[in-house]
């Protein structure tokens, strides 16, 4: 009799223990932060870099989108990510980005002029889940960053860099999901390039004259 009572009590303890055992966090895609923002002067070359430092399971980016309040555009991620996302970067860039000196391969391609250079609020949202597996969540904002007029450099070299609440401006360093780090370099304006070429031609001609005089 006592043995039977002990068995019942033991089973009850196991059941209660299972009920309170910690459950693994469900995979999602919402714990990414906007970490770097870059644009050239005409908005043709832009990138947004994001960083995940809290979870290894933020793979489901097809449930997420970026929104620009300034340009009134949204970029909906078309595919998910593979592998652990902990301490990983992802890179969303315009089509012209990849051909620039110092670029790395972006993970996603967004429209030109997505970032409004004169000032913008960029935000990261989850899609409307309806009656899906995540409890029917409506569109939800998970991260947001606002910058005003003149805050975003357009010199082709510097970018806004954000580490949670710490904001800085420095040399751009686009980093993709594979961990490749680039750095775009400024391309001379056409007029400047012509002047530079003319200067080099003059210098070359002077050097040739000096060499001819020595002969």
List the SSEs and their pairings.
Blueprint lengths: L1 H19 L12 E7 L6 E7 L11 E5 L4 E4 L11 E6 L14 E2 L10 E7 L13 E8 L10 E6 L2 E6 L18 H25 L1
Parallel strand pairs: 5-6
Antiparallel strand pairs: 1-2, 1-9, 2-5, 3-4, 3-7, 7-8, 9-10
Supply the key terms.
4-stranded antiparallel β-sheet, 10 strands, alpha+beta, 215 residues, 2 helices, Immunoglobulin-like, 6-stranded mixed β-sheet
Written overview of the protein:
By secondary structure, this protein is an alpha+beta fold. It has a single domain, classed as Immunoglobulin-like, CATH 2.60.40. Helix content is 20%, strand content 27%. It is built from two helices and ten strands. The chain has helices at residues 2-20, 190-214; strands at 33-39, 46-52, 64-68, 73-76, 88-93, 108-109, 120-126, 140-147, 158-163, 166-171. The chain has a six-stranded mixed beta sheet, with no helix packed on it. Strands 4-3-7-8 form a four-stranded antiparallel beta sheet, with no helix packed on it. It is globular, with a radius of gyration of 27 Å. The termini are far apart.
Q: What structural category arises from helix and sheet content?
A: alpha+beta
What is the chain-wise order of helices and strands?
A: HEEEEEEEEEEH
Strand line-up across the major sheet: 6-5-2-1-9-10
CATH second-level architecture:
Sandwich
> Within the CATH hierarchy, at the fold level, what is the topology?
Immunoglobulin-like
Number of strands: 10
Q: How is the biggest beta sheet arranged?
A: 6 strands, mixed
Count the domains. Answer: 1
């Amino acid at each position: 009799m006592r043995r039977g009572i002990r068995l019942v009590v033991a089973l009850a303890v196991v059941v209660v223990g299972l009920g309170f055992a910690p459950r693994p966090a469900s995979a999602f895609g919402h714990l990414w932060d906007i970490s770097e923002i870059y644009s050239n002067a005409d908005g043709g070359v832009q990138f947004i870099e994001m960083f995940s430092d809290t979870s290894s399971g933020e793979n489901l980016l097809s449930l997420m989108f970026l929104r620009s309040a300034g340009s009134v555009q949204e970029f909906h991620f078309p595919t998910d990510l593979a592998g652990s996302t902990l301490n990983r970067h992802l890179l969303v860039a315009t089509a012209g980005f990849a051909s620039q000196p110092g670029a790395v391969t972006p993970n996603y391609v967004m429209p030109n002029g997505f970032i409004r250079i004169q000032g913008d609020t960029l935000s990261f949202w989850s899609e409307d889940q309806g009656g899906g597996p995540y409890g029917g969540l409506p569109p939800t904002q998970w991260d947001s960053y606002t910058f005003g007029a003149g805050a975003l450099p357009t010199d082709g070299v510097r970018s806004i860099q954000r580490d949670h609440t710490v904001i800085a401006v420095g040399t751009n360093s686009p980093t993709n999901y594979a961990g490749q780090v680039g750095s775009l370099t400024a391309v001379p304006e056409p007029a400047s390039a012509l002047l530079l070429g003319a200067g080099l031609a003059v210098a070359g001609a002077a050097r040739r004259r000096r060499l001819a005089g020595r002969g």
